[in-house]
Amino acid sequence: MPLALLALAIGAFGIGTTEFVIMGVLPQVAAEFGVSIPTAGWLVTGYALGVVLGAPVLTVLGTKVSRKKMLMLLMGLFIIGNAISAAAPTFGAMLAGRVVAALAHGAFFGVGSVVAAGLVAPERKASAISLMFMGLTVANIVGVPLGTSIGQSAGWRVTFTLVALLGVVGLVGVAALVPEAGKPRGVTIRAEFAAFRSAQVWLAMAMTVLGYGGVFAAITYIAPMMTEVTGYSPGAVTWLLVLFGFGMFAGNLVGGRFADRALMPMLFTALGALALTLLLFTVTAHDKVLAAITLTLIGALGFATVPPLQKRVLDQAAAAPTLASAANIGAFNLGNALAAWLGGIVISAGLGYTAANWVGALLTGTALLLAFVAAYLDRRVKTSYRDTSPGESPSGTAPIPVNGGR
């Protein structure tokens, strides 16, 4: 494994910790600022919207500098945002800090995905992307549960102070290990935006919004769901998040490996199984053992979609991948924001915490339908190519396959 991938994973670890740890300390934050749980859920929604905004804007600005310098600048922004959250005197200031930290998120993973894919052979791109995202999944095994435990015992402000320090470690890692390749050649803002002329790029991002968004409908409110519905103690939420993190870790590795071999079949399987699991969670949330198993499966199936969805966008925007890659990270978080908001609506309507799982299943099921549409369009393009091109080139070799077709 190239050491640069380790550096990217370190940065992803810090970002993953701050993204998910808020869910474990949401009741404590709500209590300190005197707001309701659904209102506190805006700390998840606001972060997600910050990613959606920051991903394309900062990526476009980053075309003027090398990718390494851009990654370092993004980690600096991440540190500042978490420091603001740790010292926030009001809920509004806390929300502002979350948004500032989130601005770095999408561009970091978007630029990082391109860097990771460029470090390995073409047939290993999805695996390389999954290795970078491994930092985020490890954060859910170690960083998020530990941050939740610290937040419940020493206070959530200590948690966010430590997260800011994690950002410092990530910054040092990128500076020391990511190679300086100079400013990307031939990369212009016009070329990057040209990638969005492809309907398949938009379809892939729509799948991202709805598919992974389904996970957040349930996970945003996991602490109150597990304590109020399942009957776990607040301290047990830490260990439940560890199980969720282990599921994410395993799903990320499996998704990366199989996306390199059969991308669309991997998406069909993961999205279909995830939708069914979220439906089941409305029932299994009432039993401690079944809830723990289901939560692990949601983590695994949800993150099994990440490498194939990210690679799908890279394939379809191969000529100018950086902005499309970052925009897809924004799409993940647009889905998170949408799901957290919709989950809050059904909870506020008095339908109970488990009603958010129905929202998640509906979102993921819609993503599955879009995946079938994308595959159908792929087949139409391949058929059209065969009908309008000779079966073989003059040299006797097979024609070049359509980019991204699987």
Essential attributes:
406 residues, mainly alpha, Growth Hormone, Chain: A, 82% helix, globular
What does this structure look like?
The chain has a single domain, classed as Growth Hormone, Chain: A (Up-down Bundle). Helix 4 runs antiparallel to helix 16. Helices cover 82% and strands 0% of the residues. It is mainly α. 59% of the residues are buried.
- Per the CATH scheme, the topology name is Growth Hormone, Chain: A
Tally of contiguous helical segments = 17
Distance between the termini: 26 Å
Number of extended strands: 0
Which bin fits the share of residues in helices? over 70%
Computed structural class: mainly alpha
Average pLDDT level: 81
Oligomer: single chain
Main beta sheet, described?
none
Radius of gyration: 21 Å
Q: What proportion of the residues form beta strands (DSSP E)? A: under 5%
In CATH's first tier, which class applies? Mainly Alpha
CATH architecture: Up-down Bundle
